[in-house]
């Protein structure tokens, strides 16, 4: 038969000076102290689970912030590409206008030699008009460059602000998590030290994570130990040796994996004193 994971096993011993059975009030006190220790373990397990959830949330936040930063970097790159494209276009347009301007100037110079003063006046008017248009184009180009530079500065400022906000949020979260964990650990250590100073009991709690093949008269071994106050339990043999006389409370949970009947006996000095199916 295969024996799967043991859910829990606990033993409480109330010390006494004789073999006589202890009072009900002493047994209740022993159970209460062990219940407190179980609650401490449950709190630690819940805290560990909560920390794992917080780490998963933090990881998701880091992935989200990284994705946003990548998007912002892409936007900045696209803006840079757009600026370069506009500048190239402006340079081409400026070159074309300069060529056209020089062509017109040269043409009018040639005509001015042949034509009257009226034609010369018309040429001057056209030259002034061209100069005005060139100035307007230069002003528009400067305005566009200023606007693009302002957009780039705004994007960089937003990126820096976002990075600072993310760092502050991340640091605050880590500080809060570390503080909560440190406070709980400190409290549990103090409670455990107080319990150790006041303890008058002997107890152990053990479990197993490995299946076992057992036959008749086979000792069940719980090799994993949660608590072994008094060092009375030997996980290598599955035998508990009482360090002092007293009242013992024993609970165990076992399960047959193949559906066969399993009968669990409790022995005291090789004598059967209890059992259950």
Could you explain how this protein is built, in words?
With 277 residues, the protein is an alpha+beta fold. It has two domains: 2-51 and 201-276, no CATH class; 56-194. 62% of the residues lie in helices and 17% in strands. The protein has helices at residues 24-112, 117-198, and strands at residues 2-3, 9-15, 201-207, 212-213, 224-229, 233-234, 239-240, 246-252, 264-268, 271-276. The strands form four sheets. It has a four-stranded antiparallel sheet, covered by helices on one side. A two-stranded antiparallel ribbon has the order 1-4. A hairpin with a 2-residue loop joins strand 9 (264-268) and strand 10. Helix 1 (24-112) runs antiparallel to helix 2 (117-198). The relative contact order is 0.19.
Question: Key terms for this structure?
Answer:
single chain; 277 residues; alpha+beta; 2 domains; four-stranded antiparallel β-sheet; two-stranded antiparallel sheet; 2 helices; 10 strands; rod-shaped; disordered N terminus; coiled coil; Tumour_necrosis_fac-like_dom
What's the SSE blueprint?
Layout: E1 2-3, E2 9-15, H1 24-112, H2 117-198, E3 201-207, E4 212-213, E5 224-229, E6 233-234, E7 239-240, E8 246-252, E9 264-268, E10 271-276
């Amino acid at each position: 038969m295969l024996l799967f994971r043991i859910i829990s096993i606990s033993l409480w011993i109330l010390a006494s000076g004789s073999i006589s059975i202890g009072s009900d009030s002493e047994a209740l006190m022993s159970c209460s102290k062990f219940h407190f220790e179980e609650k401490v373990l449950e709190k630690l397990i819940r805290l560990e689970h909560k920390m794992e959830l917080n780490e998963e949330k933090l990881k998701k936040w880091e992935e989200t912030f990284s994705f946003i930063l990548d998007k912002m970097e892409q936007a900045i790159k696209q803006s840079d590409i757009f600026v370069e494209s506009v500048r190239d276009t402006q340079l081409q347009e400026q070159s074309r206008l300069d060529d056209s301007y020089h062509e017109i100037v040269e043409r009018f110079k040639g005509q001015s030699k042949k034509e009257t003063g009226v034609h010369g006046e018309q040429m001057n008017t056209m030259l002034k008009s061209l100069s005005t248009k060139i100035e307007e184009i230069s002003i528009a180009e400067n305005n566009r460059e200023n606007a693009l530079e302002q957009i780039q500065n705004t994007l960089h400022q937003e990126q820096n602000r976002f990075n600072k906000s993310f760092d502050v949020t991340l640091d605050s979260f880590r500080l809060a998590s570390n503080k909560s964990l440190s406070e709980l650990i400190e409290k549990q250590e103090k409670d455990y030290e107080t319990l150790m100073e006041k303890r008058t009991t002997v107890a152990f709690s053990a479990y197993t994570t490995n299946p076992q093949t057992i036959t008749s008269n086979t000792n069940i071994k719980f090799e994993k130990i949660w608590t072994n106050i008094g060092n009375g339990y030997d996980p290598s043999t599955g035998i508990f040796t009482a360090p002092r006389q007293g009242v013992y409370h024993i609970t165990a949970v076992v399960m047959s994996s193949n559906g066969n009947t399993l009968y669990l006996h409790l022995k005291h000095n090789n004598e059967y004193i209890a059992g259950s199916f």
